[in-house]
Amino acid sequence: MTKLRVAVIGCGSIAKHRHLPEYGLNPNVEIVAVCDLIEERAMAAAEKYQAKAYTDYVTLLNTEKLDAVSVCLPNYLHAPVSIAALNAGNHVLCEKPMATSIEEAEQMIEAANKNKKKLMIGHNQRFVSSHQKAKQLIEKGEVGKIYSFRTAFGHGGPEGWSVDGGNSWFFNKDQAFIGAMGDLGVHKADLLRYILGEEFVEVGAFVETSAKENTDVDDNAVFILKSASGVIGTLAASWAYTAKEDNSTIIYGENATLRLEDHPDFSLVVQYKNGEVVKYELGGIQSNEEGGQTTTHVIDHFIEAIVEDKEPLINGEEGKKSLEVILGAIESVETKSIYQLER
């Protein structure tokens, strides 16, 4: 098989620690180009992966014959660059959140459909073994009726791992649009939709900027969510978990409680109503603290979807639905009311 010709646009931390290494390990891929506004950054990535360096994505798209593009840019650029790449005839893997509005998300989906290309959003939590096992247990009926959940995703903040540290675009509202909600919260909104197998219909939120200075994006957010069937729970996203990262989810059901990524040794612990406890050692979530995320399965799934001509697990529609939860939370904060999500 001819290798897929891939370009990565944006050479920050997410490209350096996830996209580029995972493309490099995939036998079906040739990394032919990289792009970053900062020439030194593009040149360093190009040298490491024997690719051509660009500082302008339009020039790259007009020059290179490509099959697929990863968009690893600040949030406000996700939609315009993804649409340009799709219109240039490329499949696109875009980092999350996919866009800054529903209108942008719909334009991305329209561009993918019009050009008959794959659009995938980088929600890697769906590929975590404990999360997939929990979904299976729920679907098999072992947990019974789901009553409630609580999930959290928090760490000390982007300055700890972003290539630009405290000067990162993550803290610039014009570029980031939102803070911890967009960085971490949207991951958990997507995960819960996936595990529960249903949509959220209502969201209430409290959002603060209390841990970081010189920024006006949120660094602490807590949502209350209600699903179509009446499952209620909380989602917390934070850049203020300074001592230790939390990436846990607990699901409370009729017959059992599922504890995901909540134990130091067992990535899934199932506590049954009858007192039985089953512990699964499935391998924990990779974190940025462990030196990068090179086996998230995101890249492999994206490439597989292209090669086998099948729809990615997190396509544009899925990415949009998870984004809607976050945008609904913003509306809840602004109106100081429970926001009804349109379904």
Automatic annotation (TrEMBL):
Residues 4-123 form the Gfo/Idh/MocA-like oxidoreductase N-terminal domain. It holds the Pfam family GFO_IDH_MocA_C3. Residues 131-259 form the GFO/IDH/MocA-like oxidoreductase domain. One of its GO terms (molecular function) is nucleotide binding. It comes from the Bacteria. This is Gfo/Idh/MocA family oxidoreductase. It comes from Oceanobacillus chungangensis.
